[in-house]
Amino acid sequence: MGFLNPFLLFGILAAAAPLLIHLWSRRQAKTIDFSSLMLLLEAHRRSVSRLQLKNLLILLLRMLIVVFIALALARPLLKNAFSFAGARMKTSCVIVLDNSYSMDYVGIEGRRFELAKEKAVEIINSLKSGDSASLILMSDLADVVFRQLTTDLQQVHEAIKNASISQRTTQVLPALQAAESLLANSDNPNKEIYLITDLSGNGWENWQNVTPDSGARVFVIKIGESKADNVAIEEVYFTNQLIGVNIPVKLEAKIHNFSDTPLKDITLKLFIDGEKRREISVSVPANDRTVQPFTHRFDLPGAHIGHLEITNDRLTIDDTRYFAVNVYGQIKVLCAGERTLYLTLALNPTTSVSPASDYSIMPTTASLKELSQIPYDEYDVIIIADVNTEDADLSRREWELIGQKLYNFARNGKSVLFFVDGKPDSGLFAALANNNFNGFMPVRFGKVNSFTNPLKLAQYDQQHPIFGIFNQGNLTGANAPNFYKAYNLFTASGSKNIAVFDNDIPAIVEREVGWGKVILFNTSASDANWSNLHLNPNFVPLLQQMVFYATSSNRIADKNIFVGGIYSESLRGKRGTEAKIQRLNADKVTFTVPASVSDNKDIRFDKTTAAGIYLSEIQTPDKIHRDFFAVNVDTRESDLSVLSEEEVLRKLGNTASFIEQANQFSKTIDSYRMGKEIFGELLILAVILMLVEVVLANHERRSE
Questions:
Q1: Which of 137, 193, 310, 357 lies 20 to 30 A from 679 at CA?
Q2: Does 459 lie in the same domain as 351?
Q3: Alpha carbon distance 542, 467 (integer Å)
Q4: How many other CB atoms are there within 10 angstroms of residue 192's CB atom?
Q5: 7-11, 361-365, 424-428: which has the highest mean pLDDT?
Q6: Which pLDDT score, from 0 to 100, does residue 353 have?
């Protein structure tokens, strides 16, 4: 306890006045002779005892009244171990200001982040000369604005004024740990942490207890209403990762209603490459999601961008969702072999007339003899189908030459697909098994097996891009392809089985070679003695998906990331040394990102601070490689449900409390900083004692 007017404590000495008056006014008894008073003396003795007890009680009340009045005039303070004799101890405080994107919500009182900044300014204004402070902007990162406590409070004031909302989620724990670390280095006896937040439940997940090594108290200032409605576009995704020109593709938007009220007739708009393509109305049940599908055809190959948006609500940042996608078209494929008709027709049905320029894949055929003579540079993918050594009539030297060219083709970022037939122990496969091409073939061949009961594909990697368009039973059910022959294959180190037959023999095996891929299908592309794959309806989409995948980057998913995530792009095969990246429709700030010094030569870009579409440009000697990627907010923050005060205090421990007196905010802070003044309570207690004393004194007079 401390006192604002400690010198008035001398007034407590006045409590002796009623005692002195009592002693001074005591009457001396007179002795009067009288006859036998035995019975009267006994009655008098009992009456005097009651009277003395009552007089002592009245005396005690009068003394307490004086004491309480003296204490009240000294203005005592409670709840602060550092206050003494009215002195205000030096204070160090850290303001943890929540700038996650849920603080951008516009409630009844205004935008939450602006309200939070006002409270932070009030805290700074309550500090005195010699006090120190720091500021931490809290999202899923703890952005410590001042790495050390500073006594330049005006500088902290300006930092609060200039603070901006982020587009990130919330994590309370790292910010509190950073605040504790700052205050642990302070010598000031009074230490405070002010947590100014909307208490979004997302920020308190995976909680660990904070050890209050600094001895600081935590004051929580809640911003905004406890219940707030919101709707967000939670996800936008293509059902197929590999998209070809003029091939219908399904785009789905997942919309989440975070409120207790069903939402009807929300306007949902689809924009692709800057043009509005669709506008529809959707309804979303309360506290639930709905998925809205769209179908679209891309008529040009290359990178395409777009976004979906819904009618703006009180939190606008999650009302838009961006996407970027690569569309594959005019892929030049060389089909080499003696029987390539089924391949070329599956890749481009117009091949029999003239390959249509607006089709995704442009196949060209070549015999095995021609394969040893023509250049490969103009092709994106080479398919080797059903190599037959006897039919090819090539020398060992020519087979080795083809092997060398395919090896270099893959290492330079292109892809090779094999359909097997013939004799793998001679010709091309024998040449590729040579140690000079170590690490090229994804398998070693065993003997060929024939099956009376045809094989089926038993399982495949459902997450693999090749199989994205297929339903569960397309490739494994009753109408799936039948396989009558297959090699025993031994998967090489570094290779991956992406599909197997129902007798566990590998069916499709892939391997990365240099900057490219090699994929082997354990069947023929045209021989009905091996399988009916080429006659099955699944052959066309499966082959096209394999070609799209062979052309694609190895990291398709990197084109759509969260705010704060790392965009990674490979420079393999581009011969570039850096990338220039900027966010479209923004401030035109361009970041130059050098390639890593590792052999992979990857670009890693971590300045994804805002949602939107980003452009990446890589300069090579012959051209500029342009690509796009999308950055979106993490909609876990869109759920505006708050943690209860009881739960917050349970997590923060007994050193935490809430500040709730909004109308007298600064006074409330000072009461915590200097102690709670109990002037009024003591005066009320003194008045109550006065009333009791009056009642007892009057009763005594009436008794007399």
A1: 193
A2: yes
A3: 8
A4: 23
A5: 361-365
A6: 47
**Structure tokens that stand for 313 in this block:** 């609500």
From 598, 632, 666, the end of a domain falls on: 632
Give the chain's end-to-end CA distance (angstroms, integer). Answer: 44
Question: What is residue 30's predicted lDDT score, i.e. its pLDDT?
Answer: 57
Name the 3-class secondary structure at 536.
Answer: coil
Query: Are the CB atoms for 3 and 47 separated by under 8 Å?
Result: no
Q: How confident is the model at residue 555 (pLDDT cuts 50, 70, 90)?
A: very low
Which uninterrupted H or E stretch holds 40?
A: helix 38-73
Evaluate whether 233 touches 257 at the Cβ level (below 8 Å). no
**Judgement on whether residues 197 and 240 belong to the same structural domain of the protein:** no
CA nearest neighbour of 255 among 225, 224, 280 = 280
Q: Which helix (H) or strand (E) holds 669?
A: helix 665-674
The number of residues in the chain equals 704
235 in the same domain as 222: no
**Is 84 a member of any domain?**
no
Q: What are phi and psi of 487, to 5 degrees?
A: -80, 145
Apex CA 99: angle with CA 93 and CA 101, to 5°? 160
Of residues 456 and 689, more confidently modeled: 456
Tokens of 133: 């402070």
Tokens for 134?
A: 């720091």
Say whether both 544 and 582 belong to one domain.
Answer: no
- Six-digit token string for 291: 């998925």
Q: Is residue 37 classed exposed, middle or buried when 0-12, 13-18 and 19+ CB atoms within 10 A define those classes?
A: exposed
CB 473 within 8 Å of CB 552: no
Pair of tokens at residue 251: 């785009």
pLDDT at res. 220 = 94
The token pair at 223 is 């911003």
Residue written as tokens 């005195």?
Answer: 128
Q: What is the pTM of this model?
A: 0.77
How remote is the C-alpha of 107 from its chain's centroid? 23
Asked if the structure places residue 463 within a domain, the reply is: yes
* 292 pLDDT above the threshold of 70: yes
| Domain with 139 in it | 91-226+643-674
Q: Are 508 and 520 in contact (CB under 8 A)?
A: yes
d(CA 486, CA 138): 60
d(C-alpha 221, C-alpha 166), whole Å: 20
- Do 381 and 465 belong to one domain? yes
Q: Look at residue 161 in the predicted model and tell me its pLDDT.
A: 96
Please give the C-alpha separations between residue 54 and each of 43, 48, 437, 680, 703, in angstroms, as whole numbers: 17, 10, 114, 29, 12
Which among 483, 485, 494, 484 is positioned nearest to 447, based on CA atoms? 485
Task: Please report which confidence band the pLDDT of residue 242 belongs to, taking 50, 70 and 90 as the band edges.
Answer: confident
